[in-house]
Write a structure and sequence with these properties.
Order of helices and strands: HEEEHEEHEHHHHEHEHEEHH
Helix content: 40-55%
Distance between the termini: 44 Å
Strand order of the largest sheet: 6-7-8-3-9-10
Number of domains: 2
Number of helices: 11
Strand content: 15-25%
Number of strands: 10
Largest sheet: 6 strands, mixed
CATH class of the largest domain: Alpha Beta
Shape: globular
Radius of gyration: 18 Å
CATH superfamily of the largest domain: P-loop containing nucleotide triphosphate hydrolases
C-alpha cells in the first residue's frame, strides 16, 4: 500500500465534502482536504473558521453529518475514535488535554492502550529516551510540568500509539519562542521518520514554512488551497493571517 500510494500519488488521508454541525450551527460545509504519505499539511484560518472541528471529525471525536473520511484507502466514518488511533490516526488536541492528576508515565501508558506485553514498555521507554525532562519526572504528577513539557507529553502520548499520521491542534499555543522553535524542529524530525503531519497552527508563518501544502478555512469552507510557498506569497492571505500589509 505504501509504495503503491507513492507511485500513484494517492493520499494517505482523503476527506471529501464533510459537514459538521453542533445543533443549529454548521461548523464545516463540504470541506475536502488530503494528506499524502510523509507530507506535512497545514490548515490556517481565523478563530471560528472550523479548523479544530475538522481535526476532531477526522479523529472521530465529533461526528460528520455528510461526506467521507478515508484513511489508507479505507473508509473510517463508522470507526470509533479508539479504532482510528489503532489504525494509525492520532490527534494531539488543543490545550494538550493531558491528565494532570496522573503521573507522566501513566499518561504515556494511556497512549499505549492498544499494545500488549513488552511492546508497552518499549514504546514508553522510547519516549523517555527522546524527552529527558519527561524521564526525570516520570513518577511525578503531570500537573507539575511546565507548558512546554506538557506539550511534549501530549505529543509523546500520541507517539506511543505508533501513528502513521499525526494531527496537531494549535501545538505552539502558550509556548515561548524558544520552545516553539524546538516544537517545530520536533515536528520536522517526526516527519523525516515517515510520519505524515496535519497541523492547525496559530503561527501561520511557521506552519507554512514547515508544510508542503496548505488549506485556508473561512467560515467552515475551504477558501483557498495550494503549495505552502504559494500561500505564503499570497498578498491577501498575508494581510489576513500573517499580520502583513499587502
Amino acid at each position: 500500500m505504501g509504495l503503491m500510494a507513492k507511485i500513484m500519488g494517492k493520499p494517505m488521508l482523503d476527506v471529501k465534502e464533510i459537514n459538521v454541525r453542533y445543533g443549529p450551527i454548521q461548523a464545516l460545509k463540504s470541506v475536502s482536504i488530503s494528506v499524502k504519505e510523509s507530507e506535512i499539511v497545514t490548515v490556517v484560518g481565523a478563530n471560528g473558521a472550523g479548523k479544530s472541528s475538522l481535526l476532531r471529525a477526522i479523529a472521530g471525536t465529533v461526528k460528520e453529518s455528510k461526506g467521507s473520511i478515508n484513511f489508507e484507502g479505507k473508509n473510517v466514518n463508522n470507526l470509533s475514535a479508539a479504532a482510528r488511533v489503532k489504525s494509525g490516526l492520532t490527534l494531539v488536541p488543543e490545550g494538550r488535554q493531558i491528565f494532570v492528576s496522573m503521573t507522566v508515565e501513566e499518561n504515556l501508558l494511556i497512549g499505549a492502550y492498544s499494545q500488549t506485553g513488552t511492546q508497552v514498555k518499549s514504546s514508553v521507554e522510547s519516549i523517555f529516551d527522546r524527552f529527558k525532562n519527561l524521564a526525570n519526572r516520570r513518577h511525578q504528577l503531570a500537573s507539575v510540568l511546565s507548558g512546554g513539557e506538557q506539550q511534549m507529553l501530549a505529543i509523546g502520548r500520541a507517539m506511543v500509539a505508533k501513528p502513521k499520521l499525526m494531527m496537531l491542534d494549535e501545538p505552539s499555543l502558550g509556548l515561548s519562542p524558544i520552545l516553539v522553535k524546538q516544537l517545530f524542529d520536533l515536528i520536522k524530525e517526526l516527519n523525516s521518520q515517515g510520519i505524515s503531519i496535519l497541523i492547525v497552527e496559530q503561527n501561520t508563518k511557521l506552519a507554512l514554512k514547515a508544510a508542503k501544502r496548505g488549506y485556508v478555512l473561512e467560515l467552515g469552507t475551504v477558501r483557498q488551497q495550494g503549495s505552502a510557498t504559494e500561500l505564503s506569497k499570497d498578498k491577501d492571505l498575508a494581510k489576513a493571517y500573517l499580520g502583513e500589509t499587502a
